[in-house]
Amino acid sequence: MAAEIHSRPQSSRPVLLSKVEGHQDVVSAALLIPKEDGVITASEDRTLRVWLKRDSGQYWPSIYHTMSSPCSAMAYHHDSRRIFVGQDNGAIMEFHISEDFNKMNFVKTYPAHQNRVSAITFCLTSEWVISTGHDKCISWMCTRSGSMLGRHYFTSWASCLQYDYETRHAFVGDYSGQITLLKLDQNTCSVITTLKGHEGSITSLWWDPVQRLLFSGASDHSIIMWDIGGRKGRTLLLQGHHDKVQAICYIQLTRQLVSCSADGGIAVWNMDISREEAPQWLESDSCQKCEQPFFWNIKQMWDTKTLGLRQHHCRKCGQAVCGKCSTKRSSYPIMGFEFQVRVCDSCFESIKDEDRTSLATFHEGKHNISHMSMDISRGLMVTCGSDRIVKIWDMTPVVGCSLATGFSSR
Description:
By secondary structure, the protein is mainly β. It has 2 helices and 33 strands. The protein has helices at 298-304, 345-350, and strands spanning 4-5, 15-20, 27-32, 38-43, 47-53, 59-66, 71-77, 82-87, 92-97, 104-110, 117-123, 128-133, 137-142, 148-153, 158-164, 169-174, 178-184, 189-196, 202-208, 213-218, 222-227, 233-239, 245-251, 256-261, 265-270, 312-313, 320-321, 328-332, 337-343, 360-364, 371-375, 380-384, 390-394.
C-alpha cells in the first residue's frame, strides 16, 4: 500500500517520482491535489482514497471510503474542497474534504444517470454538476437542490466531456466517434454542431478556452485538433500512438500537447510550429497516377481488358492510388505522421530528410494507462490504469518549463 520512491536523475524524459499501490481493481481516476503532496484516487474496487506523502517519503491513505458501487469517474474542486464521484450504477456522490485532508463528509447523492458515469465536471459559478454516462446522455444538476436541470440524449454512449465555464458550451465525445457541441441553459440545451473526423470511439477530450482549441483522442490511435474559435473544424491530425489515446492535456504556456495511450505510450507534441493539415482523401474509380481501374470499376476493366486494383491513399496529397504507384513509406511529422505511412512515389520524392525530423518526443509509461491528469503549474502528471498502480511523474524535463516541483524525492 505504501508508495515507492524513485531518485531523480537528470534526463530529457519524464521522471517517475512515486508509485502508489493498494487498490484491488482498476484505478479509474487519479488527481493531484494542488499545492499539496497528495493524490485522490477512485477505483473499480469501490473505494475513494486520499493519499498524502508522509515524512518517510511514502504515500499512505489518509482517507479510505468504500462506495456502494464501483467508481468510474471523479471531479475535484480544490478551492471549495468538494469531490464528485461517478459510479457504475449511474449515481454521483458529493463529499467535502477537511483542510488537513484527513476527514471527508458526505454531502449528497445525485441521480444523474441510469448507467455508468463516464465523466464529471463541476461549475462553481452556476452550482452545476455536469456529467456524461453510458445511458447515452449528458445531464446537468443543481448542486444546491440536488435536482435535475436538464438532459440531452445521443445515439451512442457518451464517453467524455469538456466544458467552457464562461460560455456554458459542453463538448461531448461518444462511442460512435462523434463530438457534439452543446450550449447548456438552465433547463434546456441547443446543439451547435457535430464534429466528425475520427474512425473510432472518442476516448478523451481537452478544451483550451484561451486559444479556443479542442483536442480529441480516439480508439483509432489518433488525435485531432479542432479550431473552434476560428470555426475551421478539423485543422490537424496527429498520429504517433500505437494504441487508443486514453488521455490528453494541452499546455497553453509552452504550446505542447501531452497524450497517453493504453499501451503505456506517453507523447509530448510540439504545437508551437506551423503544421500542415492532412488532406481529405480523394475518391476515384481509377488510380490518379497511372489511371489503372480499381476493382469495382467493371466498365473500365472490361474496356481495357485488365484486372482491377486495390485502392489506397497517399497520406501527403490525399490522392487515390494503386499499390504500384505508392510503393514507398515515409514519416511526415509536419502533417502529424510521426511513423511511416503510405505515400505515393512522387510525394516520396518531394519529402526531404529534414522533413522527417520528429516534432514529438515519445516515452514509455510502463503500465496500461487508462487515465491521466496534470498539475501544469508544477509540471507534474499522474497516470493510472488496469494494473492498479498510480504513478506520479515529473514532466518538467520534457514539457519545456522548469517549474519547481513539490514532489521531489529529496
